[in-house]
Amino acid sequence: MARSTPPARRRRSAAGGGAGSAPPRGRGRPGADAPDLRPRLLDAALACYADKGIAATSLRDIARHAGVTPALLHYYFGDGRQLLDAVVEERVLPALAPLREAVAGAGDDMAALVAAFVDGMADVVVRHPWLPALWVREVVSEGGALRGLLTGRIAPAIPVLMASRFAAAQARGELNPALDPRLLMVSLVGLTLFPAAGAPIWRQIFDAGDLGVDDLRRHALALLDRGLELRRD
């Protein structure tokens, strides 16, 4: 009677090693059971997505970037769709969670709400520098793979909530009546996330290597303070 292959041996075989022996562990190629490998693979996927775009990135590209075999990537995530889902759940949404919490906690005070968004977005960009490029490629661009993520899961918690608070403040006479609350939210993104995405261009054009994210934050708040005509106690 044929003997079945033990599960542990099957895992080693799937990871690229020979039957009955652990896979070779060269430099930068940890084994399938390495505890830090999953986060490393997610980071590699993010780097490739931001650099080439999701549709143009293959599992082989990600495996090469991470220094592992494609078989090992399959071991952890299965196919490309499952890997993208994992990146969204374990990287993209957690990156935006502090911004969502800051906006929700700002209440109805417009100055506090605007500052929460601008400061929060600046913090997101500093902590997750991959986000601006990924956003432009996969949300703004037509056919982007993450546009549905924005409209279905992010928009209700951040831009839609903020626009409704802007409208309420406008009705109370606390916000410039010439503004459209919905376009105001678009302008906020335009003053924060897009300049971060275009930083390599405008820094070169203006020889502005001295300007960083904190400068963008102060600039946005200075413009908004006058344009919104916020009431301050």
Q: Helical segment tally?
A: 12
By DSSP, the count of extended strands is: 0
Structural class by sheet pairing and helices = mainly alpha
What gap, in angstroms, lies between the N and C termini?
Answer: 85 Å
Mean pLDDT: 86
Tell me the name of the CATH class of the domain at 93-227: Mainly Alpha
* Helix percentage range: 55-70%
CA gyration radius, whole angstroms = 23 Å
Which stretches are poorly predicted, pLDDT < 50 over at least 5 residues?
Answer: 1-29
3D shape: elongated
CATH-assigned homologous superfamily of the domain at 93-227: Tetracycline Repressor, domain 2
CATH topology of the domain at 93-227: Tetracycline Repressor, domain 2
Query: What is the CATH architecture annotation of the domain at 93-227?
Result: Orthogonal Bundle
Beta content comes to: under 5%
At a glance:
The chain has 233 residues and is an all-alpha fold.
